[in-house]
Amino acid sequence: MDHNDAPMATETQDEDHDGLISILERIQAKYNYLPQEALREVSEETGRSLVDIYGVATFYRAFSLKPRGKHLVSVCLGTACHVRGGPMIAEEFERQLGVCAGETTPDKEFTLETVNCLGACALGPIVTVDGRYFTKVGTAAVKKILKQAKEGLGKVEIGTDERVFPMEVNCPRCNHSLMDTDHLVDGHPSIRVTVSFGKMHGWLCLSSLYGSYNVTSEYPIPENTVAYFFCPHCHGELLGASDCPECGEPMVRMIVRGGGVVQICSRRGCKGHTLDVDGVNL
Amino acid sequence: MIKLTLNGLEVSVEEGTTLLEAARFYGFPIPTLCYNEGLSPYGACRLCVVEIGEGPRAKLVSSCTYPAEEGLKVRTASERVLRARKMVIELLLASCPQSKIIQDLAAAHNVRQQRFKQEYEDCIMCGLCVRMCEEQMMAKAIGFRGRGEKRSIGTPFDITSEECRQCGACMYICPACQLRCTYNEPEKAICGACSNLSPPCVEKEQFDDMMCYMEPCVACEIKTE
Asked: Which residues of chain A carry a pLDDT beneath 50?
């Protein structure tokens, strides 16, 4: 693992060693589990004993000491879901994935776990996949859920989802339109900018749909790479006014036609963005 | 000084004294299991329950963790207390009948049988070893892990801890006695004499320079002969 992580996770904490759970949460969010080395590093950084940290990490079900798969499937076996056939759903998942509850598939795609309540008893049996709720699940729906999870639940259905709408943007420096009507992404004119990362320099077409993260580019940008964004007309950098609220990397700023500013995170893979229309922050 | 009543006797104790300390100071015996004078009180075993308050507001509290209060009326051996204590001993017998300390407690309180499903746990979660390791040995090598029925005591990640000096204090203080005697896993073992008539310290050289706290140990008898 990257040995700079624990300091990064702990440096924002107070000196009274508070906030162990939030430190562990951040490590878990990054690696999907708590690696042994990370816990040892947390111990060194915070001055807490490893025994205490291990005790907390094993106490909460939310933390896992074993590597988890890409997708986390939680089947509810609480009382309400149980009487509505939760165990059958769990069995069906076990059969389809070929693992027992609490295990991860060999291809590291799915981790199956059973939980005791997901807080929506009236809609049982409940299954959550990567935090997304599936209600009144029947054994027939199991296959569909797994397929949907593999395709990616983060993908929004364009055309039916109300959160998605197209927008037109200009360069904040030269006010030239950044829209590219010749190159369509998601069936709409795309936003064309120039990006540079490392020694690469080329064009990038962003989807103009707010809520869609689809892009096409001249060179593929590796995940987690922070790129520099430029206006293809005036070659000025589209530098944001603030850092990404999600990951702290610099933001990219564009003017929304009709009044407003949209900012997106410059790190590939980060979905941090803000939209400020006529002073109303969405 | 705080004035309180112990079994009808007016006594005064210093502020911060626990009911257990006060009762023992004035000569009222209260049995304990998870209490040790050198360690912080923990209130895990519930053997030291006493009754406080009067009438319908009377309640049972663990005396080792309850600080003396002004005007408190404490009964250390009322019928309710004795009944509760016997129940605790029965439950301890049900989970860990092989412990000499628990057997002695049962005998002393005239508990001849227990009515629950018989188990043979090697740990009663009294936390003595954890506190011993932290407070007296300043090591913090072992601690509680997990929760509920999966709660257990051990080192982080179940591997030999860097903090552990193999001082044996955890075994010395353990009332269940077999807690860390892992003879079938020699690399983890400290001794194992309590469950074995041919203790490894006699046969294997690796135990030669280890400090042993197993005072009534057959191995030492064999060695000195």
From this structure: 1-5, 7-17, 281-282
Prediction ipTM score: 0.76
The shortest C-alpha distance from B119 to chain A (Å) reads 24
Helical spans, DSSP H, in B19-78: 19-25
What DSSP element (H or E) covers B106?
A: helix B100-108
| pLDDT recorded at residue A1 | 45
Hey, are the CB atoms on A55 and B140 less than 8 Å from each other? no
- Does domain B128-224 fall into CATH 3.30.450? no
Domain residue limits, chain A: 5-59, 71-151, 165-281
Are B144 and A55 within 8 A, CB to CB? yes
| Residue B120 and residue B176 in contact, taking contact as beta carbons nearer than 8 Å | no
Pick the CATH number of B2-108 from 3.40.47.10, 3.10.20.740, 3.30.420.40, 2.30.30.280: 3.10.20.740
Cβ-defined contact of B163 to A36 (cutoff 8 Å): no
Give the closest-approach CA distance of B131 to chain A in angstroms. Answer: 12
| Positions in chain B short of pLDDT 50 | 179-186, 189, 191-195
3-state secondary structure of B92: helix
Does the predicted model carry a pTM greater than 0.80? no
How far is it, in rounded angstroms, from Cα B85 to Cα A265? 64
Superfamily of domain A71-151 in the CATH hierarchy: Glutaredoxin (3.40.30.10)
